[in-house]
Amino acid sequence: MVLEKATGSSSLTERIQYEIEALILSGKFPPGEHIKEQALATLLGTSRGPVREACRALEKAGLVSIIPKRGVFVRKITLKEVLDIFDIRAQLAYLAGWEAAQNITPRKYDDLRKLILRMDEAAVQQDADKYLKLNIRFHDALYAMSDNERLHQLEVELGNSIALYRRRGLASGGGLTTSNKEHCEVLDAIMYGTKEKAASVFRDHIYQGKNRFIVAIEHAPEPK
To answer: Residue 172 carries which DSSP code?
Structure first.
C-alpha cells in the first residue's frame, strides 16, 4: 500500500488521511485499536510527519483520539452515545431535507438517482463496504444541497464518529436494500414533495437506520 508521490505536503497528508479512514471504516482498525504511526508510515511508504498530521485531522473528524504519551487510538464510544448521535443526526436531517427541497434541480435529482442505482448494485452484491461509501456520498450531496455549511459540517463530524456502527446496521440482513429504498423516498420527497414532507422523510430515514443498528446489536456481539 505504497502511496504515489503527491504534488505537495497538504495533498500527501490528505491522501494518507483517506487511507487511514478507509482502514477504520472497513473495520481493519477496529474501535480501540492503537494506530502506530511509524508502522503505518512504513506501510504507506512515507515518513511519520504526514501520518501524524493526518491523525490530527482524523481526531477533528471524530474518528480517532490522541492521548498524550500513549498515542493514537480509533475512537471507541458507548452504545448510549451512538444512539444519542443517531437522534441528533435525525434532527439535522429534518433541517437538511427542508433546505434541500428549496435548492434541488432536475440535474441534481438525476445525478443522485444514478448514485442510488450504484447503491442498488452494491446491495445486490451484498458489498457493505462499497455501499457505505456510496451511502456517505449520497448523504453528503443532500447536505451540500441544503447550502448550509455549518449544518453540513456537523453531519460529517457526527456521521464519522459512528461510521463503524452505521456500517454494522447496514450490513445486517436486508439492511442495504431497505436503506436504498428509503433513499429513493427521500430523494423523491425532496424533488416533488413539500418542504415539510422532504424534511420528515429524511428524518425518518435516519431513525430507521438507528432501528437497523439496534436490531443488529441484538443479534451480534459488540465490536471488540
So the answer is: S
